[in-house]
Amino acid sequence: MDERHPAPATPGHSALRRDHWLLYATITTLSWGVWGALIEIPEKAGFPATLGYSVWAATMIPCALLALRMNAWHWEHDGRAIGLGSALGFLGAGGQLLLFEALRTGPAFIVFPVVSLYPVVTIGLSVTLLGERAPRRQWTGVALALPAIVLLSYVESTDTLIQGVGWFVLAVGVLLAWGVQAYVMKLANDTMTAEGIFGYMALTAALLVPVALVMTAFDRPIEWGFRGPYLAALIHVLNSIGALTLVYALRYGKAIIVVPLTALAPVITIGLSLAIYQRMPATYHLAGILLAVIAIYLMADDG
User: Fold this and answer.
1) For the chain, what is the radius of gyration of the CA atoms?
2) Domain ranges in the chain?
């Protein structure tokens, strides 16, 4: 939480060191960056994206239990907390489910720059509904995000790596879901602990697993070996660990430093993804990626 939205007092006492907030933020940035680059490998090996979501949801549970244990099992359960917690949880998990589908036909080095522009939605909602005033550099980021999305969405008919436009529609769906989720999290931070929020996120992620299973085509060949669920678990636990360390980075550090730092995760994703594909993006995609990276950093400034 930042100084404007301090974490509510709780009976628990975290065992984590307060002066390690920079370490927590760095872990989040690195783990999310690597996760984004590797997330599609199990699916391309024959492990369906829907099952990948199910594995990710499972990795959230032990992290949530650890966070709640460190906070003396304090978990807000009044009507407002349940409503906000469920909303932000389903928005986050629903966006995650769409992300897995988007990566079936679109490469990570293009999908993630689009998805990571979700602060456009958060800033818009905060300004119009909460009456907040966004600093000039955030508006500059919003302005750069628009041409970035246009450039990233363009695909030549001869590009065999990117299939159709379905990935872009799904990526925009993730952008909208996560943008609204961040707005809801602003509201929840006033009355809920970070651990409580994380608990609702893990719970709602698990509740959507049956939906993912229904969407799975079990009549098709599925990779059940190491490259399937086991590799998926090793990859997706990076996301869950990063989310958990972000909780403590924001609790003990200043958001004005933590948020821009973690916003650099897509840069790692893009670099690793390009190395994995061993190809350079088209000129217009490269321009879109550069604009998106700059926009992400500018919009992440919470000052």
Assistant:
1) 19
2) 18-300
